Amino acid sequence: MTLSLRDLAQDVLKGNRRSVARLMTAIENEDPESRAAISQLYPHTGNAYIVGVTGPPGSGKSTLIGQLAKQYRKLRKNVGIIAVDPSSPFTGGALLGDRIRMQELSADEGVFVRSMATRGSLGGLARSTVDLVNVLDAFGCDIIFVETVGAGQSEVDVIKLADVVMLVMVPGLGDDIQAIKAGIMEIGDIIAVNKADRENAERTVLEIREAIELDTEQKEWIPPIVKTIATSNEGVEELVKKLEEHRVFHMKAGSARTRIKGEIQLLEALKARLSETVMVGLKGDRDYEIMIEKIASRQLNPYEAAATLVDKIVRRNQD
Helix, strand, or coil here: 248? Predict the structure, then answer.
């Protein structure tokens, strides 16, 4: 018998790993019933500590997350990992590189690893990442790592769902200052300089510290810098210590950030829902086709066209 998504949601709350995987697949495939299932789980979320992990490609994020997961398992914590991979140009699915690197964790019942594809979404995350995090939260994970694609400076979207953002840097990126000075640097709550056995590791730490000190804004939390060598587990215990220190800080002063996260997620959901409503309203609309031709011939600019179409759809919905 095929279970409904509502039944799968109930099984998730009972700790059924297979139901977690099936529900996640339905969410990624944008099954219409998945929204009801997510709503069913939502009251049971808010307990997990969500760690966003971002940084440039090749910084060793996956290996470092794997070591952190092992450390948290020693502390008897249930761990969830969502690794957002670039989409395959052939199937649209995740390339699964991160899951392959974390496969040694798969035998541990206290760890749930999921790779997912961006499917064209920008910002280093996929559109359904928040929903998958909520599934793992309701499933009972104590800590959830969300690894972004690793595509560079565009990955600031991770702040929309994370309680703490860990920025993973690595020596030898060329012009280190250029690599760390843009927006991605501003969202890091904890900075790991991985592969710290490389040449110029100390220089990288110094440049990051200088970049942090250039930020004149008064902050209660100053991002600590931790040197790590993930392949040999060096610095990982110290990184866990800093993550736990931030968890305490977040619990004391997290109400404002939690509210901001809630507002951001609401606005994202509104944008998605409004976009769907508009696109449904445009199906078969002759004016839409005419406007495309006028925009292409420079008779009409896209902003005027969009305003006209939205007004038309709003009036139609009011009627």
Answer: helix
**C-alpha–C-alpha distance, residues 178 and 181, integer Å:** 6
State the residue for tokens 């000075």: 181
How many structural domains is the chain composed of?
Answer: 3
Q: Read off the pLDDT of residues 21-67 as tens digits, 9 standing for 90 and up.
A: 999 999 988 888 998 999 999 999 989 999 999 888 888 898 999 99
Nearest one of 265, 262, 190 to 228, comparing CA atoms: 190
- Residues 263-314 have pLDDT tens digits of 877 887 788 778 777 777 777 788 888 899 999 998 989 889 888 888 887 7
Q: What residues contact 131, with CB distance under 8 A and at least 6 apart?
A: 27, 34, 38
Residues 187, 162 share a domain: yes
Query: Can you give the pTM of this predicted structure?
Result: 0.82
Q: Which long-range contacts (CB under 8 A, 24 or more apart) does 21-25 make?
A: 21/114, 23/135, 24/114, 24/116, 24/132, 24/135
Range of lowest pLDDT (130-144, 215-229, 238-252, 264-278): 264-278
Residue 307 located in a structural domain: yes
DSSP, residue by residue, 8-40 = HHHHHHTT-HHHHHHHHHHHHTT-TTHHHHHHH
* Domain range enclosing 21: 1-44
